[in-house]
Specification:
This protein has 9 helices and 11 strands. The chain has 258 residues and is an alpha/beta fold. It has a 6-stranded mixed β-sheet with strand order 3-8-7-4-5-6, with helices on both faces. It has a 5-stranded parallel β-sheet with strand order 2-1-9-10-11. It starts with 7 loop residues before the first strand and ends with a helix.
């Protein structure tokens, strides 16, 4: 199989504040590639006035399910605006260790209240919820369109009693009208929402020789579920960062720096 030299890379996120001092600039300098940035989706929080219409009483719930940073941010923002202090006795069922750590930025919760699977998969998280010794009352902060969260179907299949709390909204722009994605040799994704936006913008997308990069197990899984061949991924034992993974791949395709 012929290895295609990488000339143009698209990162599906906003550009860094200081590009010249970023790791992106190091990739450009080292490998002679050009890089562009474009966020594939936008997120905005649900106004507290709208949340009140759901008639959800946050303090009624003993357990909260958290799967991403945006859900955490907007949930605690709503609680703050409603002047609600989340009890320290609440259990947080998180998709992975990173999510659990992020929750602790917003609440002085004891570590034993943070419950998450080691492998960070939705299936393992549902198993922990299903086998929790006490039958909890679960609240699940998520996006207005629950189809973007694969955990919903798994919870429904297991008939777990939970309540959806819509705390943010995702909007997908038609990327095909803004950029020519086929002009890039590599596209790197940082969120499952980015994969869904790709499917929205290009319903007949064909990867061809394009190299797909993905950061995080959920992003990798979303890409693979969409039929994409992920060739650059992180974190792995060899590559804890996506930059390390891209650097190694470019050394193989474009040649190591002399």
């Amino acid at each position: 199989m012929n290895v295609v030299k990488i000339k143009k890379i698209l990162f599906s996120q906003n550009p860094p504040d200081n590009f010249e001092k970023s790791l992106y600039a190091e990739l450009v300098k080292k490998h002679g590639v050009s890089v562009d940035f474009h966020k594939f989706f936008q997120i905005k929080g649900v106004p507290v006035e709208e949340f009140r219409k759901s008639r959800i009483s946050i303090l009624d719930y003993t357990d909260i399910i958290m799967t991403n940073k945006k859900a955490i941010e907007h949930f605690f923002q709503i609680a703050k605006e409603m002047q609600i202090e989340i009890p320290k006795t609440v259990n947080y069922f998180c998709i992975n260790a990173a999510t659990a750590h992020y929750v602790q930025k917003y609440t002085p919760c004891r570590k034993r209240r943070m419950i998450f699977p080691k492998d960070g998969t939705p299936e393992k998280l549902v198993s922990l919820i299903e086998n929790h010794p006490s039958p909890g009352n679960f609240l699940f902060p998520l996006a207005i369109d629950p189809s973007v969260n694969q955990l919903v179907k798994l919870l429904d299949d297991k008939q777990i009693n939970y309540t959806k709390a819509e705390v943010f909204e995702i909007s997908f722009a038609d990327v095909s009208k803004i950029i020519d994605i086929y002009s890039y040799d590599m596209v790197v994704f940082f969120s499952p929402f980015g994969i869904q936006s790709l499917e929205y913008s290009y319903p007949d997308f064909k990867q061809g020789t394009m190299v797909i990069g993905a950061l995080g197990s959920r992003v990798i899984a979303a890409a693979q579920n969409a039929g994409l061949n992920v060739q650059v991924m992180a974190p792995t034992p060899e590559h804890p960062s996506i930059f390390s993974a891209i650097d190694t791949y470019l050394q193989k395709t474009n040649g190591a720096k002399r």
